[in-house]
Amino acid sequence: RINDAKGFSRIERSKDAEKLWSEVYKDLSQDHEGLIGAVINRAEAQVIRLSMIYALLDGMDVIQSQHLHAAIAFWEYCEESAKLIFKGREIDPEADKIMDELKDKDLSQTDISNLFQRNISSMRIKDILQGLTVRGKVMPYVIKNNSARSTTMYTLAHPQPHTEHGNENYEINEQSTTEGIIEGGHEGS
Which residues, at least 6 apart from 30, have a Cβ–Cβ distance to it below 8 Å? Predict the structure, then answer.
């Protein structure tokens, strides 16, 4: 059968396969973030290639719906495997390290610099934090200290910020879509 495939100049889809393709294309062409996205994006291209291989293995120059079904099933297995292996991981190992540390506590930029033993530039840290903020992974907030200084802290976007500041009252005010301010202080201040 493989020798038969050598003579094919063009591979087409049957009407049933074309109908099925139009139904699944939108789901297959969705983009995913992070390392998972790097592995599984462009699923539609992979499914087309797989369905063509299945048709050729059957000695056919027309992709039938069973070839497309088989390709989709194989791709779903690959996608689920990638999600299991790479779940929650970023493409950037430094971003991964920051995200892992944020699971335990909120961090300032100084804390993050210390996490890397000060071997990463502050500009690089800002770039990582900005990317994580834009993708909705982390949320910055500002702690206004009793002095004139304030500290920007970073927390995971979904959980509430860790508060290790005693009985101080904190209020989160939305400043923008990506930044909130926590103003803390003792009652009456």
Answer: 43
Q: In what helix (H) or strand (E) does residue 73 lie, and over which residues does it extend? A: helix 65-86
Q: Beta strand 107-108 with 62-63: parallel, antiparallel or unpaired?
A: unpaired
The string of pLDDT tens digits covering residues 61-99 is 999 999 999 999 999 999 999 888 877 666 788 888 999
What are the residues whose beta carbons fall under 8 Å from the beta carbon of 160, sequence distance 6 or more?
none
pTM of the model: 0.54
Q: Dmax over Cα atoms in the chain, in whole Å?
A: 86
Q: What value, to the nearest 5°, has the Cα angle with vertex 121 and ends 125 and 154?
A: 25
Which amino acid appears at position 139 of this protein? M
Q: Report the run of H or E that residue 5 belongs to, with start and end.
A: helix 2-5
Nearest-angstrom CA–CA distance, 91 and 33: 9
Q: Return d(Cα 69, Cα 42) in angstroms, integer.
A: 17
Strand 62-63 relative to strand 12-13: parallel, antiparallel, unpaired? parallel
